[in-house]
Fold this protein.
Amino acid sequence: ELWRMRAVEGKIASFSRFAKYLADTELSFESLKDVVLQHLGKLNKRFEQYFPEDTVLKESVGWVINPFRCSLQNLTEKPHWLAEQLIELQADVTAQSEYETLDLETFWMSEPAKAQPLAREEAIKLLLPFATTYLCEAGFSALAVIKTEARNKLNPGSDIRCALSQLMPQFEEII
């Protein structure tokens, strides 16, 4: 829902690859906005099927998702310093500006978030499993594509390394 709201506002910083694609192809976001919003709506429905709304969980980790709109009353079971650091973070105009322009993970790694080290450390602990799970899923998907019947007897190590690498080969230098 957060991504959909940002897309409605025309903020596509959360979609770095999509923004790069738009810049490379000289397409405008406005021309694709309806398609993107429709896709995000469908994606949201699929997530709701897999992960039903859990209000207790949402209240306990909502401060990580949006530290500027979270209810501090829900943090009574958390350490006292967490609420104090979130109050300081909410008062920081620079931090709020960074939050609006950066994606969630990048925000918690930014300088304004580093000013609240304990809250930042807790947020990273909560966000880290999602990134590692994504990388595992990407690895298994790449292996499924590589290990087809035609290539079943090959050692997939080098192919997987290439498939999962974020670096683009420089073919001009290779050739």
Q: What stands out?
A: The chain has a mean pLDDT of 79. The chain has eleven helices and no strands. The two ends are 45 Å apart (CA to CA). The first helix runs from residue 2 to 8.
